[in-house]
Description:
The complex is a heterodimer. By secondary structure, chain A is an alpha/beta fold.
Amino acid sequence: MTGDKTTLWLSRLSVTYRPRTAGQGEVRAVRDCSLRFSRGEIAGLVGESGSGKSSVLMAIPRLLPAGTLISGEIRFHEKGAATDLVKLDEGAINAWRWRRIALVPQGAMNSFTPHLTIERHITEVLEHHLRMTRRESRGHAAELLRTVGLEPSFLKRYPHELSGGQKQRAALAAALSCDPDFLLADEPTTALDVITQKEVLDVIVQLVRARGMGLLLVTHDLPLAAGVCDSLFVMKDGLVDDGGPVREVIESSPKPYTRSLIRAIREMESVNTLGVNTLGAGTLSVGTPGEAYACDASISGREEA
Amino acid sequence: MSALLKRFGGAVVVLIIVLVLNFFLFRIMPGDPLTGIVDPRFSPEAKQELAAQWGLDRPVAEQFVVYIREMLSFRFGLSMMTGTPVWDELRNRVPNTVALLLPALLLSAALGIALGVKAALRRGSKVERLVLWSGAVSFSFPSFFVQLLLLMCFAWLWPIFPLSGSTSIPPLAGLAGVADYLRHLALPLLSLVILSFGGWALYVRNMMVKALGEDYVLMAVARGLPRRRVVWNHAFRSILPPVLTILLLSLPGVVSGAVITETVFSLNGAGRFLLEATNSHDYPSAGAAFFLLALLTVGCNLLADLLYVLVDPRVRRGGVE
Lengths: 305, 321
């Protein structure tokens, strides 16, 4: 399936958090995790809170806290050559960050520096990675905002002047700025309202498809992942418990954990169709993805409560 | 805007209160100019004459009006100690104080910020422990103790710096004079930097630890920006508003601290002037000195508010509309 496509290949990846103060125990958050995804592919990484999925995502551009142990390999395959990102030093990995692998942050994150305008966040990376002049980068930034559906007037705004959905769109524009090969998105739509969630996810998926990028979507929300992904990986207690093309995983996985997840969701879906859930499932559930969003609303709504 | 006007109004009220208090406090203090300045062997007639010359024989209400007029017009009148205009004394001494305090403030802030940032970046390292330890020591020593220690070490046991004064006597001319002046400034300046970098280091380290843990700093790292850029443009820049506020708010305290420093090193500065004027009941001089100090304090407060608005967009431009 990979062929000579540019591929991220995680092989027996383990992540162990080590506390700063001695005496407290280490936490092995990810154990021998192997998965791969290529350009042009959307991979979902699902699991409950604490299953290690965010640790996997943050390990790829090496954004885990200082002192965290990473073992195994994170290979970046392109044109027959492979680079192991785990072995790069801090200076070398910086050339890969954002330029090749960009991050769409969690919806609940303060992902923008409060004293910088949206424009400066984008021009800063363009000037640094693509050596653009300030003038070129400004034009490019306006263009990027348009592609994610924001008026160029948003460029002059400060982060606190944007709503949650606008912020995520701007974050996506920033992530696309250097035209990376891979996007890593960690719960990009949590903390947004249901309708905005759908809009933001649609923009992400549409742009990733149009540009032929690879996307790793980390979420606790199996229906949401099932609705947009090509392949699906299920994590449990730091292990990748299940994985494969999305249809196979959803319809015929032999794994008990995956099956129990799917069963739980089916039950909730039936609750939805009975009209007990008042979040507007009827109007949204046109196709499978629609139902997925409605279902997601009830799950995230419960988590916030 | 209306908030700023309110601050400005508050500042004016504070100044008025200070003016009124200054007048009465100096007169409530035990003693008076006639005993404080004048030779006790003066005849009662001569004392009477001086009192008349200084306006002390007038009713208090009239003295108060004259005092307020002199203060608000910034004329300040004649010093009772020297008989010369208070302004001449100030012109003579304020530059010495500025030459000491401004470099001291900037050097200690710069040193403290550099150390604080370094400590925050190397959490758990020896560097951090050293900064925290030296910062706490610097922060907690009484100033005169450190200053006397410095004098003992570098002006007496190993006399590479002068023991006292702002210049040699008689003063040297030209470039040699400048060098001589700097040599006299060195120990007081060093003492002030030693005494105040610690507060900065501890404070900046704490704020930077918090700032470096923010999501947006992690995102700046994720964007592959150079480390210097992440540290200074994203993390440090975000704590700049409180840093500037502290810088400005510490200024009046630093000026008050000059009273001790200038006394220990016998510098011819405004701090010692303030002390001498108060001790000798020189009403015009003390009034002027304290009024100017109050102006500086209130001015710094206002400037801090104004700067905060300028450097923090969240204050400058409200929330989501």
